[in-house]
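[Automated response] Your request has been received and processed.

Submitted sequence:
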Amino acid sequence: FINFRKTEEEIIESCIHELIHYYWFKKWNSLFENVSELDEHLVWKFSEIAIDAFFKVSELNKYRVKEKPAYEYFYDIEIENENMIEHFRKLFSQNRIHEFMKKGMEYLVKYQKLIPD
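Generated structure:
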């Protein structure tokens, strides 16, 4: 659902956000198709964290309306003296999508207790 009170730019941003999820899970399922031991909630959380990197570290940035396209609370998480969102931006910019997914998931599994629901 999209709120009809949003501006045209906000609607476009919301649509891109959801299209990123579609792309994300298509790629995710091709990479992790036989992995059932991963926590589904953590996988979903990763897809929401990754939204920021997709918007900030790609050409999709020109469609970004909100300063913080992911959930607000992700931006305040510090892990080992590094902002978590900044960590994922670097990881995204330095890796192809499959490597980003693998390394990002390893990071989230390692620090999942530090990331609130």
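Summary generated for your ticket: The mean pLDDT is 91. The chain has four helices and two strands.
If you did not submit this request, please reply to this message.
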